[in-house]
UniProtKB/TrEMBL annotation:
This is Carbohydrate ABC transporter permease. PANTHER family: ABC TRANSPORTER PERMEASE PROTEIN MG189-RELATED-RELATED, SN-GLYCEROL-3-PHOSPHATE TRANSPORT SYSTEM PERMEASE PROTEIN UGPE. The keyword Protein biosynthesis does not apply. PROSITE patterns: ABC_TM1. It comes from Georgenia alba. Residues 74-263 form the ABC transmembrane type-1 domain. Its main location: membrane. It comes from the Bacteria.
């Protein structure tokens, strides 16, 4: 169904305005990160158009930032996020497959429990859980950083909804060919579920990338600190170099943004299937 031209123009303008609203703060952070020290405040109070013009600055803040402990935190974040994606999908895929294709007593109750638990903010249980992890000897380890993020209810939900949209005829044909449960998952479901796998992987990545409280409680040594903690540590009691902090904030914002741009088609496709079946 084609929309009238004026509706198309209006929707395009609304999309452009939304994109501009999101882009301007990020652009300001980038421009301010090019200015030395705290000199960017000269154009903020009062706010001037010069605050959005990258003039009189350089990349010295990035040079200092990327030659300090922030780099170790950034590499730790990439490692922990990557491990979370791999092992998180290893948990979410079979869980979603069982919930989508098998009938067993209490199936809906289990699925409802997963969805409800996913809605509970993790920070509400982070402190008592960190005490348990210390008892188990998992404090200040990569295992301790990764483990709580593996059972992601939203990732299971997205994969389950996508699996339920796969035609039953393909499943029946696989059973006739004698593939079995695992063979059907490996040869039928996974090849058809690339958008859902990317969408679930992005959810796992973003949940770990933006985490702050849990890495603060568990990654206590400089060798295990993640990037958000390393960035916060740039501010000390006696000195605050906001130029470097803004540079670090820009780096932490750009990495997930680039990933979303690379996989936006698959990510959107995975989200568009979440409400198809219940």
């Amino acid at each position: 169904m084609r929309h009238p031209r004026w509706i198309t123009v209006l929707l395009t303008l609304a999309a452009a305005l939304t994109a501009l609203t999101v882009f301007i703060p990020l652009w300001w952070v980038f421009v301010s990160s090019l200015r030395p020290g705290n000199s960017f405040v000269e154009h903020v109070t009062p706010l001037s158009w010069l605050a959005f013009v990258p003039s009189g600055g350089d990349f010295s803040n990035y040079e200092v930032l990327l030659s300090g402990p922030f780099v170790r935190g950034l590499l730790n974040s990439l490692l922990v996020s990557g491990l979370t994606i791999v092992f998180g999908l290893a948990v979410a895929v079979p869980a979603a497959y069982v919930l989508a294709t098998m009938s067993f007593p209490g199936q809906r109750l289990v699925f409802s429990f997963i969805v409800v638990v996913a809605m509970i903010p993790f920070d509400t249980i982070a402190i008592p859980l960190s005490a348990l992890f210390q008892t188990w000897g998992l404090s200040d380890t990569y295992t301790g950083l990764v483990l709580p993020a593996l059972a992601n209810g939203f990732a299971i939900f997205v994969l389950r909804q996508f699996f339920m949209g796969i035609p039953q005829e393909l499943v029946d044909a696989a059973e006739v060919d004698g593939l079995g449960r695992f063979g059907t998952l490996w040869r039928i479901f996974l090849p058809l579920s690339r958008p859902a796998l990317i969408g679930a992987g992005m959810m796992l990545f973003l949940s770990q990338w933006q985490a702050y409280l849990w890495p603060l409680l568990i990654g206590t040594s400089p060798e295990r600190q993640l990037a958000p903690i390393a960035l916060a540590n740039l501010s000390t009691m006696f000195s605050v170099d906001l130029g470097q902090i803004l540079a670090g904030a820009f780096v932490l914002s750009v990495i997930p943004m680039l990933l979303l741009l690379m996989f936006q088609r698959q990510y959107t496709a995975s989200l568009s299937t979440t409400g198809m079946k219940g």
